[in-house]
Fold:
Amino acid sequence: DAGVTQSPTHLIKTRGQHVTLRCSPISGHKSVSWYQQVLGQGPQFIFQYYEKEERGRGNFPDRFSARQFPNYSSELNVNALLLGDSALYLCASSSPGQGAREKLFFGSGTQLSVL
Amino acid sequence: GQSLEQPSEVTAVEGAIVQINCTYQTSGFYGLSWYQQHDGGAPTFLSYNALDGLEETGRFSSFLSRSDSYGYLLLQELQMKDSASYFCAVSIYNQGGKLIFGQGTELSVKP
Structure:
């Protein structure tokens, strides 16, 4: 079975631009979460979606938005990019049985560089 | 606030046992998780403690003591491939699937 897949793997943007990151969860997983990981730090929670509804939002500005589609894939959008948005963006899915609180399956992430 | 503290770096030799500690300051939470991340890779789930005590999974064990606000990950029979970053994380009551991660401990295994 395929794991969590994210695209693109790397992305270079300039300040002020917009970016869309994509994530496909493991088949059968209905919950998708997004995390930002700055080099040398732990992942920071951005959003969680379950059954296409937002279930949680972290301490990020409104420039960050996300959505989940009927097939449970998800997009993370970031507007008006800042240099500080440069990070590894991780998507994670969780099994209906275990839940996000217990076990997350992470993708390899999208490395975003803002110049 | 909610925070988790881990040592930034730990070094050990192949075949040894190493313990990575995690202390936390947080209100009610469901449990303590541990994740492993190799350079530039995806974090991988290792262990979860919902209750106090020891959970064992192969060479890895994890421990939680809610009364002491403390947990640890124990790695036995260290191998070179265990060199990675290790993160503890907690899931907070009434905050959905949000996990709060520690800053991570970089483990270096030497021959």
Remarks:
- Chain A touches chain B at residues 3-4, 31, 33, 40-45, 48, 50, 55-56, 58, 88, 90, 94, 99-109, 111 (CB under 8 Å).
- Residues 11 and 112 of chain A are 5 Å apart (CA to CA).
